[in-house]
Every structure is written in C-alpha cells, then in structure tokens.
Amino acid sequence: MSLNKVMLIGNVGKDPEIRYLDGNNPNSGNTKVAQFTLATTERYRDRNGELRENTEWHNIVAWRNSADVAEKFIRKGTQVFIEGKLRTRSWTDQTGNKRFTTEITVDNLQLLGKKTDNPGAQPSQGGYQQPQPSYQQPQPAYQQPAQPAFNQPAPAQPASQQEPMDITLGDNPTDDLPF
User: From the CB of residue 61, how many other CB atoms can be counted at a distance below 10 Å?
Assistant: First the structure.
C-alpha cells in the first residue's frame, strides 16, 4: 500500500497563470490548467529565544474545475487550503540539460480568510461594497402573556429545615442506589 497526499495552508505568491490544452483559446472547450506558487511559513524560536521564520515555496497545478476557481477568485496574497498529490516531472531545456520540478497537483482547493481579505473576490471596477447580511434576527411568532398561566413554586427550604425523605429500594434490600 502507498499514499501520496499533501495538505497545505498558505498565501498565493503570484496571480494564477491560466492555460488551455491545444492552444490558449478559452472558447475551444479544451481542458483548463492553472499554475501558481504558494508560500507556507513556519515560525519557531531558536536556542537563543529569537523568533525565526522559514518560508517554503510550492508550485501548484490545478486542473479543470479547480482551475476555474483559481482563475475567478485567486490572486496574489489570497489564503488557500490545498489538498493534492506530489508530482515530479522532468524535461530537457533549450541547452539540452535535463531539468526536474516538483509540483502539487490539486485535488481539493478551498479559499480561506474573510471575503474582504481576498483580492480575487473584489470587483476591479468601482469600489468594493460590503454585502448586506442575508440573515435577519427572527421575530417571535408568539406574544408573551400578560399574566403567567401558572404560579411560581415556593423556594426550597434550606437542608437543615427539610424533613428526611423516605426512599424505597425495591426488591433488593442490599441495593443502596436510589435509582
């Protein structure tokens, strides 16, 4: 058995680069692919107690529906959750050298953070308008009666003034549990 699974939360380093297989015509119905970088930062204290940061950059590749989401909503700085697989591929560059790259192929992509923090969710024309809440406080469907329908019970007497309770234990006299 084997498992190839990567889970990352980080900030996008550059706007996604969108391509279509068999040309760059979005109307041709070809498969869409989006590529962008993602930064994950680990913060820790060293031996001297000083705060240190270690940032890793990841190459992300999103296909089809995930590429659509990336194209519409992801911009530089967007915080995202990526779940995917690690892939290494090789090619020969123009000078004849064999090159390698490691990428994360997206299986699941989720936008994180507040909508106002996401540069991809804000319209480019005009200003961003805060959306009106679609939820409103519900109004009660009943009216509170003017007079209570029952009398409040009298407050309990302190334990020192109460009479002892008689508890019957049932068929088994050795059972000392009252329930």
Answer: 20
